[in-house]
Amino acid sequence: MARIAVNPPAVGWSLTIPPGLWSTLASHLFRDGEEHGAVILAGYADGPRGPRLLARDVILAEDGVGYVEGTTGYRALDATFVRDQALRARDENLAYLAVHNHDDMLYPGSVGFSPTDLASHERGYPALRQITGQLVGGLVVTPRAAAGDLWLPDGTRVALAETVVLGNNIIRLRPRPAETADADQHWHRQSLLFGSAGQLTFTRLRVAVVGLGGAGSIITELLTRLGVGELILIDDDRVDKTNLPRLVAAEPDDVGKRKIDLAARNARRANPAMRLTLIDKRVEHPDSRAALTTCDWIFLAADSHSARHWVNQVVHQYHIPATQLGVKIPVGVDGRIGDIHTATRILLPGAGCLWCDELINPTQLAIDMHPQGEREAAQYVPEVPAASVITLNTLAAGEAANHFMFAAVRLHHHNAEAASVLHQPQSRDRLLQTGRQSASCRFCTTTGDLGKGDDTLDGLVQREQKELTPNRLPI
Ligand SMILES: [Zn+2]
Ligand SMILES: [Zn+2]
Predict the structure, then answer these.
(1) Where exactly are the structural domains of the chain?
(2) Helix, strand or coil, per DSSP, at residue 29
(3) C-alpha angle with apex 101: 64 to 82, nearest 5 degrees?
């Protein structure tokens, strides 16, 4: 298999499209080599390298009805179609993006607006921006490139730096292929597989690990050795003696220390230039939730129902992929051993939802959401320590980190399933499980929270001013 050219993450405004909406859009635009049109309505969010637009809905313009022969150009969106979508953008506080396709036969991997396109933006967008009070703009795409012209309500006009298509492979479409220098010799052996653009991709990514126990400790080690440039580590727990066999490089003296500090120590050993944010709070704390919304990827290695709920919420509301790792070693009070398995679940926006899969228990969630003192005072059944072994954590962590790695540098076969992986070490089985999807889910669907992001563009601007993300990458 030839390596596909990878674009490392770009700095600036980006648009993220979840897998379901992209397949709807792509099969409409690229079906016959002709030019077609659609509108994307998008939520707003802050991101690790700039503001993000989150595709929340795609409305296809039917040829001859919504997309018609224009008076000045080749084809254009019909005025009624534009009005209907613009009003929806206004009413739902969403960005409005008119999309059409070009072919890239002449300059493979590159795309740009034609003079006709730009003239129509200049004629139409000032009024549309005024009507909607939202960001409006145009997007032109090919299967390998995308360019966007964004008109902000404050009068500024900016170019879209990249369009991120989520799936088993993360595809970054740019106006033209990115140029990258050779990676440092330190990374030579893995650059042979990833290419220098792939290695640079890891350096630019911001990844969160929720839960720094057995599985989270190994994930952190793997991510840092892989070259991920920035980590957010979230856990409010401290090391006790029974944790020592499962924490990477832990020493007897570490008992009583914060688990995030142990993980941070390992991360710095692997990469002294690592950018680290340590949050010693539970995942439902607003600091943890705010930090999660600005990541490129989340590893969920904590097993509480509230951790599952909040990470799941961020996946769908903010279009941030996540991987959940779980290890089950059922040992009964009579010593009987049940079916041991490790699970690695891929959560992509609009696909792979822990609510739809009935993996969040509302009663447990309600209990988890109480402050610790209240949980104890209410005399909930105290948690019995479960069996835990480092080798099984390693199986789940390895599966999860490999999936992330292949996704980031587009090495998955294009038809690979975005399914959960279940290892059953006693029978040596490896099973793929496709997640369930409920059309009425209020978390992972377009009628629910999918791609909602922050409430408004104003909210995003306020967040920017509060400098929630001080660690912007230099361009
Ligand atoms: Zn065009
Ligand atoms: Zn759902």
Answers:
(1) 14-173, 185-444
(2) helix
(3) 50
Longest dimension (CA), the chain: 80
**Nearest-ligand number for the alpha carbon of 312:** 2
Q: Comparing 14-173 with 185-444, is the CATH topology the same?
A: no
Rounded distance from Cα 125 to ligand 1 centre (Å): 15
Q: What dotted CATH number matches 14-173?
A: 3.40.140.10
185-444, CATH topology level: Rossmann fold (3.40.50)
HSE toward the beta carbon, residue 355, CA cutoff 13 A = 24
Residue pair 230/201 in contact (Cβ under 8 Å)? The answer is no
What lies within 8 Å, CB to CB, of 169 at 6+ separation is 406, 407, 410, 411, 412, 414
Q: What separation in Å is there between the alpha carbon of 329 and the centre of ligand 1?
A: 57
d(CA 443, CA 4): 33
Ligand closest to the CA atom of residue 98: 1
Model confidence over 346-385: pLDDT tens digits?
A: 999 999 899 999 999 988 888 888 877 676 666 555 667 8
Tens of pLDDT, residues 51-60: 999 999 999 9
C-beta pairs of 331-335 under 8 Å, 24+ apart in sequence: 331/386, 331/387
Percentage of the chain lying above the pLDDT 70 cut:
93
CA 56 – CA 48 distance, rounded (Å): 20
Question: Taking the CB of residue 455, how many other CB atoms lie within 10 A of it?
Answer: 11
CA–CA distances in Å: residue 50 to residues 19, 32, 39, 153, 295: 22, 35, 23, 17, 11
